[in-house]
Write a structure and sequence with these properties.
heterodimer, A: 7-stranded mixed sheet, 53% strand, B: 12 strands
Chain lengths: 115, 114
Amino acid sequence: GAVVSQHPSWVICKSGTSVKIECRSLDFQATTMFWYRQFPKQSLMLMATSNEGSKATYEQGVEKDKFLINHASLTLSTLTVTSAHPEDSSFYICSVRYPSSYEQYFGPGTRLTVT
Amino acid sequence: AQSVSQHNHHVILSEAASLELGCNYSYGGTVNLFWYVQYPGQHLQLLLKYFSGDPLVKGIKGFEAEFIKSKFSFNLRKPSVQWSDTAEYFCAVNERSSASKIIFGSGTRLSIRP
């Protein structure tokens, strides 16, 4: 399977600050990446679809001004949590879609703790 | 609304027992189906997938799943579980018309007693 990395793996920030999470596709160029969040002992919830060179498509209920997604290159997508609050604390996971396939490969996730 | 249901939230088995985890979906169109596994402290890994063809799909580590279109189901099975199968299992569905979005079920936690 494809190798997907995320950085950082764990971040702690203060309420009101912004945090940027990177997702990199190491094996191939990914035109489409996805961002999920996972609360403890719960499933993954799709937040948005990140398309290289265009605006991300957000799922219903996800604030696009709070969760800024940038997919500036074929190997990198970033998720910026702006003005973070404790309720944003969660596990954020990205995935990349294999070209011409429905398969997705997942990154190891980033644990965000907002104090 | 489109959804994926996993009816078993937590399953506890002894080693060598047989396993079946249920998954049902509600989508009207053609779907691709997946089972992912998340071992403690690790990231999601693909166990198996169904796109088309033989509805009985074999995956890694001795797992298999059967797609029954009439029942909108894609249950995961393993004839004899091991302690190392302790993990969280997620069923996931992609509707082919939805730009490859994958929607996940709520997950089933599998605990294996040694």
